[in-house]
Specification:
This protein is of the alpha/beta class. Helices cover 32% and strands 22% of the residues. The chain contains 6 helices and 11 strands. The chain has a 7-stranded mixed β-sheet, sandwiched between helices. Strand 3 and strand 4 form a beta hairpin. Helix 5 packs antiparallel against helix 6. The protein is globular. The relative contact order is 0.17.
Length: 183
Amino acid sequence: MAKVYVFFADGFEEVEALTTVDLLRRANVEVVMTSIMGKNTVTGAQGITVCTDKIFEEIDPSDADMLILPGGQPGTTNLSQYKPLTDLLTEWNAKGKKMAAICAAPTVFGGLGLLNGRKATCYPGCESGLTGAQTSTDRVVTDGNITTSRGVGTAISFGLELVSILDDKKTAEELKEAIVYGH
C-alpha cells in the first residue's frame, strides 16, 4: 500500500486538502495528515478546523511514496516559510521522489527552484511563482516526479491523478465511476 503525507498549515484550502485525502483513502492509500503548526488542529481559509493525524515533528517521511501540498492563503505562505518542510521538499526532489501541489502551493516548489525546465500549472495569477517552469493552463500536470494542479475546481482531477500515480489508472478509473465524476 502506498503512503503519503499531506501537509496542513493554517489558511489551507479545505476543498483541495480534504478532497485529495478523501480520494486517496478511498483508493486504500495510507494518508498521514500532518500539521506544520506545532498542534494537531489547523484552521482552513474558510474557517473550517480539522484535526490532523500528526504534527511535523512526529513524522518520519522516509517511508512515504509522495509528499502533497494543498493550496489556499495564507496556507501556502505558511508552508513556504516553514524551513523543516522546505528542506524536506528540496531533499525529496533531489532524490527524484514524488511530490504534488495544488492551487497556489506549486509556487512553494517554484520558490525552491524545483520546477526549472518542467511543465507546471497553478492557480490563475500565481504563475510568476512557478520560477523556471513552462506554465500550463491544464487542470493537472505531471512532469517527472512533480504533479501540479490549478485549484478547488480541479481538486477531484488532482486526486484522481495522484491515485493513478500511486496505484494505477484502472483504480483511478474505478474510483472516478464510483464517485460519479464527469457524468
